[in-house]
């Protein structure tokens, strides 16, 4: 048995107005201080006021949110007793809002979450996610990523109950993204869509959103990066990120996420930049040992008008196109191009490999690497050399 879940989605100009139609008494908005500073919470508050819903703001979410932060927001929720929790921001804020809902409604800690347990969360509160970046797709998935600071690792959590009830994609919310975040989050969306399309847990329901999302990213990410005021490009990237979330959230991601999570946990590289950096190296690895992955990459290349011809040539041109796009939106193409020193990276190699081996995404691909192959991938990615094995 497989499942396919999506939130009710309001999208397009002025879609925040949907908030003035919801029923309830109190909402806890989970966000970060920068979103408050940009005035975006005021837009949301005005709509909630029309719906006669009181609200409180928790704005202490940090990048790569920690378990401790979730416990802070949970304590506020238990005291305030909201019937709506609203995550506003990038993946960090939305993942914190999902975790807060579970811990508040089920009275557990984040690490107690189990994908197989039923918590009846909606008896206590419902969940709305409103993205302010175009990358994580967290508004369209039940997945949660938190940081276990004590063990320097990222932890994947969630259950089908953490799929938001409502996602709101209002283009006004992403118009303030600076170029670097536009590039980082855009490559995250591309990685989600490509890996979701090739993962072994994919289905006919995930293929369509994934393919369309990839094409939209190739057509719009550089436009949004070059001109942040390009409303059409911003809008299309917002939609692509959500479609990519639908694809991988109902299937699975792949090795770009396994390796990206590993370096993110140890070196605190932004998530989108990390997975986007490793994506082409892991794609090369897949092409060299999986006919199925090669064929799927070729379909993507043809659909996106990147290449025509035999599967291998199309797949390789797709990988080259991924690297070209990353370069054109200010992304590092190798770990050596970041501030991570080779000695520190090699010293951390056992931890990188161990974290990648134990990621769920590592077994959801058509060519599953062992620890030795993962180490080779990490080395290739540092030096900027192709994965030719």
Number of E-state strands: 8
Q: For the record, what CATH class of the largest domain applies?
A: Mainly Alpha
CATH superfamily of the largest domain: Dehydroquinate synthase-like - alpha domain
Number of helices: 14
What is the number of domains?
2
Report the β-strand fraction as a percent range.
Answer: 5-15%
Tell me the Rg in angstroms.
20 Å
Query: How does the overall form come out from the CA principal axes?
Result: globular
The strand order across the widest sheet is: 1-8-5-4-2-3
Q: Portion of residues in helices?
A: 40-55%
Tell me the layout of helices and strands:
Layout lengths: L7 E4 L14 E5 L2 H5 L2 H11 L3 E5 L8 H14 L3 E6 L1 H16 L19 E6 L12 E5 L4 E5 L8 E4 L9 H20 L5 H23 L4 H19 L5 H13 L3 H17 L3 H13 L7 H18 L13 H6 L1 H9 L13 H13 L6
Parallel strand pairs: 1-8, 2-3, 2-4, 4-5, 5-8
Antiparallel strand pairs: 6-7
Helix pairs in contact: 3-4, 5-6, 5-7, 5-9, 6-7, 8-9, 8-13, 9-11, 9-14, 10-11, 13-14
